[in-house]
Design goal:
This protein has 111 residues and is mainly β. The chain has one helix spanning 80-90, and strands at residues 4-7, 29-37, 48-57, 60-68.
């Protein structure tokens, strides 16, 4: 629908495949990908930034996802970042466990 786009690493573009670097701590990260979510009023440079880290985990993988609003005042966006990540999880073509942990942000209980 054109609201999601892939973002390169800039110039020079370091690439998304981290396997040549043999990262083992804090997790064996293998890939890092960045994208953008555009909304009607906030797109391009003002669109939300999406970050994904994929690490090896036994015979599978662990996916960490993060969404960052690019405008101040997004506190009243009714959880748009959480909804964007939930939408992506729900509509993925890969088998995803329903067991996930919210580390920070929307959906996390406030203590």
């Amino acid at each position: 629908d054109g609201t999601f786009e892939y973002v390169t690493g800039g110039d020079p573009n370091p690439g998304d495949d981290l396997r040549p670097y043999k990262i083992s701590q804090p997790k064996p990260f293998q890939f890092i990908v960045q994208g953008r979510h555009n909304a009607p009023q906030y797109k391009g440079e003002d669109g939300d930034i999406l970050d994904f880290n994929i690490a090896a985990l036994g015979s599978g993988s662990s996916l960490r996802m993060f969404s960052l609003s690019r405008i101040h005042g997004a506190l009243g966006d009714a959880g748009q970042n959480f909804k964007t990540l939930a939408f992506l999880l729900k509509n993925t073509q890969f088998p995803i466990s329903t067991d996930f942990t919210i580390v920070h942000g929307c959906g996390k209980a406030v203590v």
